Amino acid sequence: DHCFYQGHAAEIPNSVVTLSTCSGLRGLLQLENVSYGIEPLVSSATYEHIVYQIKDNKIDFSPIAENYSTTQLTDKSYKIFVKSE
Fold first, then answer.
1. Where does the source fall among the domains of life (predicted)?
2. Which of 15, 28, 40, 76 has the most other CB atoms within 10 Å of its CB?
């Protein structure tokens, strides 16, 4: 199965995107010196995922999602390009 992907964000120098679709969408995004994780919500019956910021190797849920249902939007958009390994 080809379920591991690695790539970069368009127009973001030195960005790294690593994703797995083996059991839900999981991955790590390094964008402009900020790291984000994405993974499925275990408690969700509708395949929702959480995106969270990683600071100093510690997970910080507060800037990205609140109570797993309200998403904070930012004014930046990224185009993510991935390639199958």
1. Eukaryota
2. 15
Whole-model pTM above 0.70?
no
Let me know if residue 84 belongs to a domain.
no
The domain of 37 spans: 4-72
| Two tokens, residue 21 | 């679709």
Is residue 81 situated within a structural domain?
no
Give 4-26 pLDDT, tens digit per residue. Answer: 999 988 888 889 999 999 888 89
Sheet holding 49-55, edge to edge: 58-60, 49-55, 34-40, 26-31, 16-20, 4-9, 80-84
Report the distance separating Cα 58 and Cα 66, nearest Å: 17
